[in-house]
Amino acid sequence: MIKFGLSMIAWATSLAIASVALAQAIAPLHVGGPAESAMRQLRPPSPSEQVREQSMQRSAPLPLPAAPSEQWVAERRVFSPELQREVVIPGHFEERVSAQQYVAPPLHVYDAQTGMSVALPGGPRPAPDSRQGP
Asked: Which SS3 state, helix, strand or coil, does residue 125 take?
């Protein structure tokens, strides 16, 4: 009888240890609804669950890109009323002040026929698309 009692105690103990070990190895099932917050308090989310939750959240939209502050003006040939001849204006960048006004750097324009160079002072100018002269 004592052997039977000891074997029952040993069997009950091993069953209790096995069930505790099994309970620790198996993660609880996903529970939705109001019980979900209670489950989070009992067991914090794993790192992979945290990453999944963060990836499902919507991020704020990115701001629009700023308008370019400089514009490339290609080389062109124009008639200069001051010089009374056709001049070649080399390609250059102009800084944008507003949609209608740009600031051109000082340039060296040259005569299309003789190649003579003339300094053109920099300063505010209308937009390159609407410009008639240098």
From this structure: strand
Report d(CA 128, CA 47) in Å as an integer. Answer: 56
Q: Is the overall model pTM greater than 0.85, yes or no?
A: no
C-alpha to C-alpha distances, 92 to 50, 95, 101, 114, nearest whole angstrom: 52, 10, 16, 22
List phi, psi (to 5°) of 125: -140, 160
Share of the chain above pLDDT 90, in %: 10
Which residue is associated with the tokens 């067991």?
Answer: 43
DSSP assignment of 56-105 equals HSPPPPPPPPPPPSEEEE--EEEEETTTTEEEEEPPEEEEESSSSEEEEP
